[in-house]
Amino acid sequence: MQQRVEDLIVPVDGSEHADAGVRYAARLARALDAELHFAHAFPGSIQALMERLGTQPHQASAERLSAEAFETLRNGSARRAFQQAREYLEPGQVASEHVLDGEPAEAIAAFVGDGSGVQVVMGRRGLGRVRELFMGSVSERVIHRLAVPVTVVTAGHDGGPTEAGGAAPLIVPVDGSPSACRAAAHASSVAARTGARIYLVHAFPGSTAEVPLLSGDGGGTAEVGPFAEEAFARLGADNAREAFAAARDAMTDTGASAPEVVELQRSGGPARAVIQLLDELGPAEVVVGRRGLGRVQELLVGSVSQRLLHGTRCPVTVIG
Predict the structure, then answer these.
(1) What is the pTM of this model?
(2) Where in the chain are the domains?
């Protein structure tokens, strides 16, 4: 059974993207009746601070900053971050505040650990697709270190479950894999509290020509052979039926009933199908599993969660 979210961890640093994470988390905490926890990461030593600032040993000595001055900097940084975050809490809401030592991704991961009933909500810095691809981001490093749900929010696109007009729909790409089933279960638990409609989306190539290893376009010599178009279409329908059934079973196991669940079959890759649906629906959110693509999907795509994180601006929750 999917663990109900009881604690929301929100990294804060006083930036615009962190503020977006706080706004979203405040609304979600109300809807889920969950506790809020602000976390501010700061280098754990004078030397670590110097290295983070890019100061080389030959340029400045760590001894120039006294222990007292370092502590003043650390406390001041945390105080400003927490004070700004508190401004986005809803009336009557409170959040515990924690100062963490170390680099943000590592510190957050260590703080969360393998705690059950925990979800991390963090803003996306917005490096741009190319820079994030090569440099990575704090949010992606956190995702890869944790098994708990991690929601990534973009400033200006931080819609939430209690916005005017009702809860935003939850889009869940499914392929029958364990991680996709965990994503469906999480979405069901959230929707049971927020009233959000869930869209289970299964994407499959429209023809063998869309699969390089079957069409021969990928440089190989594979022939379509028994994968005639009619048989391939049946394979897609069977794959969808199995994926939807597995997702429904996972949702039932949570013991929480989502108000409405819609099953959609789309042609093409999962990320593209989700992005197209976002264009059709308007404001919505995505809940996606991080590991384990389906059988045929592995021929076409790499990490669907990464593609969605880079290709969308809506809140994306990644389930490890």
Answers:
(1) 0.84
(2) 1-158, 165-320
